[in-house]
């Protein structure tokens, strides 16, 4: 049987329980051999990040420690960022495809907020040449295809598939987890921490300890 991996890219400033739930959801749905979490290096569409690359990677490892499935933190985007190269998902997918070979099932996971702006991503129409696109609904973001840019709606709905089809195909299909509903964002957490609140219902305990030890997000 071909190798199966789900990729979960993000800024993770900081990682939160929404990310862990997202990883759990698709790791189980797709019965992956590995969940690969990939912190961005230079996320060109985001304002400056507060935590360093090392800190974001450290927090990710703590957040996903002890899951029942295999998890790896992939530092390739941080390495490219250190060379001054912007983080383009297409580059990451090309690298993972070259690493795992043509038969592996590779699923790139994102939230509904990113699907809504997928047509702004670098070479977005080529993403499906390398991976499946798996999207989770997110409170506050309309996932109905009528709310998507027409080209995204067309590309996404024409390739909708079942989890089984995604598990058994290398790339090119889409999936929408409409029942996913976790109302947590890193923006909300940064604001809470800045106000001196603990945000302990939103962040894994080991990540909260790390944030306190390193005095992150206080200003
Ligand atoms: N609560 C959530 N529900 C569904 N998807 C989510 C959720 N939180 C994050 N994601 C998805 O996880 C990926 C990484 O998200 P990111 O690290 O930017 O977190 P964020 O909470 O969206 O951060 P910020 O508030 O700083 O924009 C993105 O694809 C995003 O859509
Ligand atoms: O490739 C792009 O141009 C691109 C543009 C915006 C976002 N992304 C990716 O989408 C993922 C989630 O991004 P973010 O900003 O929500 O953390 C992360 O892996 C980013 O690198 C990718």
From TrEMBL:
GO molecular function: ATP binding; nicotinate-nucleotide adenylyltransferase activity
Involved pathway(s): Cofactor biosynthesis; NAD(+) biosynthesis; deamido-NAD(+) from nicotinate D-ribonucleotide: step 1/1
Keywords: ATP-binding, NAD, Nucleotide-binding, Nucleotidyltransferase, Pyridine nucleotide biosynthesis, Transferase
Pfam families in alphabetical order: CTP_transf_like
Biological processes per GO annotation: NAD+ biosynthetic process
PANTHER family reported for this sequence: NICOTINATE-NUCLEOTIDE ADENYLYLTRANSFERASE-RELATED, PHOSPHOPANTETHEINE ADENYLYLTRANSFERASE
Similarity comment: family membership: Belongs to the NadD family.
UniProt function note: Catalyzes the reversible adenylation of nicotinate mononucleotide (NaMN) to nicotinic acid adenine dinucleotide (NaAD).
Protein name: Probable nicotinate-nucleotide adenylyltransferase
Source organism: Duganella guangzhouensis
